[in-house]
């Protein structure tokens, strides 16, 4: 595990270097007694008051946005896009999918993305590299792991001991879902082989082809594999592991300093999306999300949303608290990707929750 983690961190550093290479009326006086000798002057005709001129609408600001993967785990963001909440804040979102937090963070450092939705651990990794740029977490979108454990064989009931001696097709070393899985196995004292060298877009296909006894997937891919009869749901990693700050909106410290109105508008829009999901009808939710998941049936989209809502994925206030930050760093240390002496004492070095605290109700 240590060798794989060191390799993953080295890959992140190399990616950063490559992307960086590739890439402002006269005054009058008054008296209590009127003059006696002079006739009163004729009062000047009143001119109608000018109506206040409406401010010219601000030009929309384009934000280059990188999401870690495409998943219904991030439904509030897609709802904000489909319902026009970003436009209300004067923001046009130019979105791409990075396929990894390491790549999403590297895009920020290289200046090819403005805001990324990634694992918050990336801000800690980059801070400890002591480079020219740092990242700051400004909105905590999810507070649970978003993956689900599926089995190849149907199980009447599931116990974590069922993983003993089995293989689990999982995520890359150092990623949030991989660390949640590893920490859960440590908690349960289970020895399982976790396969971490399959790229996330290829995981479902690899499992369908026979690799692994279990697989750890996000929605809607998990529900799709179930519907195809190629896997069986056994557990929610979010429910099993508990509160964990898995995915955050992150930008460079420079971008946040130079564009506070844009960052505030971004936070406001996503918060509106999260609130909308809680009250919208099933029909409206499926209509809002389906354009982002072409080919995924409506029932699977709704099932995915319901699973994430059931485990309290999206916090009412999207804040990375000191307690959650402590949990994050403890998991990083437990998984060997953060040395105890590298632990950040002042979370303000990589976290800025002022925009969340100021967001519109």
From TrEMBL:
Composition-biased stretches (Low complexity): 26-47
Stretches assigned to coiled coil: none
Annotated localization: Periplasm
Sorted UniProt keywords: Signal
Main location: periplasm
Boundaries of every SsuA/THI5-like domain copy: 75-277
Family per similarity comment: Belongs to the bacterial solute-binding protein SsuA/TauA family.
Protein name: ABC transporter substrate-binding protein
């Amino acid at each position: 595990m240590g060798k794989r983690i060191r390799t993953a961190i080295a890959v992140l550093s190399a990616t950063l270097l490559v992307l960086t290479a590739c890439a402002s009326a006269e005054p009058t006086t008054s008296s209590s007694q009127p003059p006696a000798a002079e006739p009163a002057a004729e009062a000047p005709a009143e001119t109608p008051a000018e109506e206040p001129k409406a401010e010219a609408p601000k030009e929309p600001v384009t934000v280059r946005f990188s999401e870690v993967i495409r998943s219904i785990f991030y439904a509030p963001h897609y709802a904000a896009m489909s319902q026009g909440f970003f436009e209300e804040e004067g923001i046009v979102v130019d979105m791409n999918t990075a396929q990894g937090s390491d790549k999403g963070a590297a895009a920020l450092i290289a200046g090819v993305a403005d805001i990324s939705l990634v694992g918050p651990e990336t801000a800690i990794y980059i801070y400890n590299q002591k480079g020219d740029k740092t990242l700051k977490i400004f909105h905590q979108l999810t507070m649970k792991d978003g993956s689900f454990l599926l089995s190849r064989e149907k199980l009447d009931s599931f116990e974590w001991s069922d993983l003993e001696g089995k293989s689990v097709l999982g995520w890359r070393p150092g990623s949030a879902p991989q660390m949640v899985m590893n920490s859960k196995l440590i908690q349960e004292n289970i020895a399982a082989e976790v396969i971490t060298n399959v790229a996330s877009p290829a995981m479902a296909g690899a499992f369908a082809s026979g690799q692994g006894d279990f697989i750890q997937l996000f929605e809607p891919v998990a529900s799709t594999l179930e519907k195809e009869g190629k896997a069986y749901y056994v557990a929610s990693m979010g429910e099993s592991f508990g509160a964990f700050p898995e995915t955050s909106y992150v930008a460079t410290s420079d971008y946040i300093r130079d564009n506070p109105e844009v960052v505030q508008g971004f936070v406001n829009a996503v918060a509106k999306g999260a609130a909308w999901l809680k009250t919208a009808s099933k029909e409206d939710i499926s209509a809002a999300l389906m354009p982002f998941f072409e080919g995924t049936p409506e029932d699977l989209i709704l099932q995915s949303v319901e699973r994430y809502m059931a485990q309290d994925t999206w916090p009412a206030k999207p804040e990375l608290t000191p307690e959650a930050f402590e949990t994050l760093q403890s998991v990083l240390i437990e998984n060997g990707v953060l040395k105890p002496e590298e632990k950040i004492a002042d979370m303000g070095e990589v976290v800025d929750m002022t925009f969340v605290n100021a967001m519109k109700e």
